[in-house]
Amino acid sequence: LSSVPLQILFYVNGIYYIFYFLATLAMIVYKSQVFSYPDDFLAPDLTLLFIMAILEVLRLYLGSKGNLTEEEAPLGLSLVITVGSVILSVYFLVWQTYVLKADVIINAVLLFTYGLESVLQVIAIAAFVS
Prior knowledge:
It is elongated and about 55 Å long. The relative contact order is 0.17. With about 130 residues, the chain is mostly helical. The longest helix has about 30 residues, at about 5-35. Helix 1 runs antiparallel to helix 4 (about 100-130) and helix 2 (about 40-70) runs antiparallel to helix 3. It is built from four helices and no strands. The protein has one domain. It is found in: Cell projection, Cilium; Membrane. This is TMM80 protein.
């Protein structure tokens, strides 16, 4: 009953998130050097990025484990953590101090994969329950 497309998406999203994290970190450093980035906002932006990375590792681990073992609980917990990841992604898309076009593009891709994963997770949970 495990979902192969979901497992593939978890793997691809894991690789993409490494790129996302490094690109966002580089852009924060770039923005702090090029623009007059307020010191009061630099630390929270970096902290939220690292919190998002921790959530992402946990989310992908639980989702992959739940899918492969065909258990609803880890997959459902991964789905709940996805909500937190979506909120943080929206923060970096809309509310961070400076938003570059590159921020918009990489966050849009990340939000798209979150949406697709969420749909596949709900389908997988429904298959496991029945």
